[in-house]
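Cont'd.
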Amino acid sequence: MSGPSGGAGTRATGLRSTGAPFVPFGRKLPGAGLRSVISACAERRRLARSHRTERPGGPTHRVACSALARHSAGMCGRARLSTDASEIKLIFSIPPHRPTPNFAPTWNLAPTDPLPIVRFDAHRGERSLDVMRWGLVPYWASDIKIGYSTFNAKAEGLDARPAFREPFRRRRCLVPLDGFYEWKKLGDKRQPYAVALADRRLMAVAGLWDSWRSPQGERLRSFTIITTKPNELLAPLHDRMPVILDPRHWPAWLGEEAADPAQLRTLLAPYPADDMAIWPVGPRVGNVKNNDPSLIEPVAAPA
DNA sequence: CCAGACGTTGTT
DNA sequence: GTCTGG
DNA sequence: CCAGACGTTGTT
DNA sequence: GTCTGG
């Protein structure tokens, strides 16, 4: 409702000790009245959302994209990078005199976490390595929270979406990863898998970046990981996978070589299944507070 | 024209 | 159920 | 991506 | 900033 706020400190007063108990969200309630109120609110929000994407009369381009997206969702939301910065610079041919950013090795990288990414500094004609936040916040955004839902960008229609169109043209980057995780649905359970290149080399994932200025005037640079259809190895786990780029395509993607959007789009294809490896891992990776090399230790294959 | 979204995931 | 935080 | 939080009223 | 919806 639209009543007054109740003043500062309301939330800090804690739970009330008498009267109706706090109503858990999404749970069955003893009284039908309150449930119906909450259900109505949820339903209203759900309708508002579907109204945006499933408008029945004459689908627009955006609606068509969203409808397509509904059954081919994106996915790459947890990753790892324990290779140190100096080695990353060697692998990506970043000149030694360029800054070597500090970052902690991670076996459980999540959206909003910082990660070093590779760009082409056209002014100097060199590649660079800079730490950015995972979850692209467009420069026009009013709220950083949009980054919670822009950690992936679907390759299909990149040049049509407001959040990614300009980054796709001018702000492409490579995201160095040792690998990432996928959760496979098994009935009502979810089994995490580690994913890597077959030879365990560092992988270069296609990304986009942007620079955002917060209301307080601070600059935030952030990036997203592009997803595409899965190869035969990953298809049993999920219906999307991140775009991994072969080194021979790095110059075009980084903008060191001229490439038109059509050429760039052809690069956004599933990586060969024969060059990748997957194995099931334990459930501890689900909690971002766990972060150590044991997270990628193989466990017995699920039934 | 202005107001408001702009994204992905998840589910059956 | 939906959203935020990590 | 998953884990975990999530609210209002009234009164002083 | 740019696009869609009204």
